[in-house]
Amino acid sequence: MSINPTKPTYAPGCEETCVHPQAVVQARATLPDDACVIQATHFLKLLGDPTRLKILSALSSTELCVCDLSAVVGLSESAVSHQLRLLRAGRLVAFRRAGRVVYYRLQDEHVTRLLQSALEHARE
Q1: What are phi and psi of 83, to 5 degrees?
Q2: Phi, psi (rounded to 5 degrees) for 27
Q3: How many CA atoms lie within 13 A of 55 on its CB side?
Q4: What's the Cα-to-Cα distance from 90 to each of 14, 113, 124, rounded to whole Å?
Q5: Per the domain annotation, does 76 fall within a domain?
Q6: Are 47 and 115 in contact (CB under 8 A)?
Q7: Residues 110-121 as b or e (16 or more Cβ within 10 Å = b)
Q8: Number of structural domains the chain divides into
Q9: What CATH number does the domain containing 96 carry?
Q10: CA–CA separation, 27 vs 18, rounded Å?
Q11: Which of 33, 97, 99, 103 is the most exposed place for a label (fewest CB within 10 A)?
Q12: What one-character DSSP code corresponds to residue 14?
């Protein structure tokens, strides 16, 4: 049997309409509040860009300045700076200033773990 790429495949659904009240209550109890959902969605959207994911991957091994990041990902310093502004605003990267040079690093262990998990999942 071959799969037709133009015809979508669907996951199986319920053959009968019914509601399982206990399962609904349990699932609702685990839902985060709306503000948390919005913030997490914004966070995941930032990870959803290939350039930003490369920048974050580079920063997972060491802190780097814009010039170094530009060389690593093969983009202009201006383009890298733009992406870093977004990542800073989303609290995925932090920076420190050493004289006239600004070094960037991942914000915290949460970002590191999420990045590692996403890459592991992609490699499976």
Answers
A1: -65, -40
A2: -65, -40
A3: 33
A4: 39, 16, 28
A5: yes
A6: yes
A7: ebeebbeebeee
A8: 1
A9: 1.10.10.10
A10: 16
A11: 99
A12: -
Amino acid code (one letter) for 69: L
Q: Mean pLDDT for each consecutive 10-residue tract of the chain (124 residues)?
A: 56 75 92 93 91 96 96 97 96 96 95 91 92
Query: Whole-angstrom Cα distance, residue 102 to residue 63?
Result: 10
Does residue 60 lie in a domain region? Answer: yes
Asked if the structure places residue 14 within a domain, the reply is no
Contact 47, 37 (CB under 8 A): no
Residue 119 lies in a domain: yes
Distances (CA, A) of 118 to 2, 64, 114, 123: 30, 22, 6, 9
Instruction: List Cα–Cα distances, 70 to 56, 100, 113, in angstroms.
Output: 12, 17, 24
CB 93 within 8 A of CB 53: no
CB-based contact 93:84 (threshold 8 Å): yes
pLDDT at 6: 59
Domain containing 114: what range? 33-123
pTM: 0.78
